[in-house]
Design goal:
Order of helices and strands: EHEEEEHHH
Radius of gyration: 19 Å
Largest sheet: 5 strands, mixed
Number of helices: 4
Shape: elongated
Number of strands: 5
Oligomer: single chain
Distance between the termini: 44 Å
């Protein structure tokens, strides 16, 4: 059973293009483990592959999708358009969620709201609400 579908970049790998890296964030987010079967997609192609791990690689490259002996599937134009639209629609939500996590950590460390406001896109009112909620 396929556990997840992930966008991959066959140009970002440690050993060879058939072993593109998977970010530690994606491993944690999708609760992936070594041996899990997933589908990696890039542009107009999809591949079935196996999640692998090598602790001798640099931290950001230890997890990868092993595409050796994998099954390749062509992707329809409609699916490519859907992925593109979905990615564009989800981008702002993902960015704001990431920013909120950083803001919460900055405020928890005692950073001044004015300083946090200077480096984020969040209003002072929102920052004050976050600080109050987390106090």
């Amino acid at each position: 059973m396929v556990k997840a579908k992930l966008a991959i970049d066959c140009n970002f790998y440690q050993v060879e293009p058939s072993k593109p890296t998977i970010s530690p964030f994606e491993i944690q987010y999708f609760e992936l483990q070594v041996g899990d079967e997933i589908i990696g997609f890039q542009d107009d192609q999809e591949w079935e592959g196996t999640v692998s791990y090598d602790p001798t690689y640099p931290d950001e490259m230890q997890w990868y999708l092993d595409l050796n002996n994998s099954i390749e599937h062509p992707v329809s134009q409609e699916r490519m358009e859907g992925r593109s639209e979905g990615g564009r629609a989800a981008m702002p939500i993902g960015e704001i969620r990431g920013e909120l996590l950083v803001v919460e950590a900055m405020l928890a460390d005692g950073m001044d709201i004015d300083k946090v406001s200077q480096y984020t896109r969040l209003s002072r009112t929102r920052l004050e609400n976050i600080k109050r909620r987390n106090s």
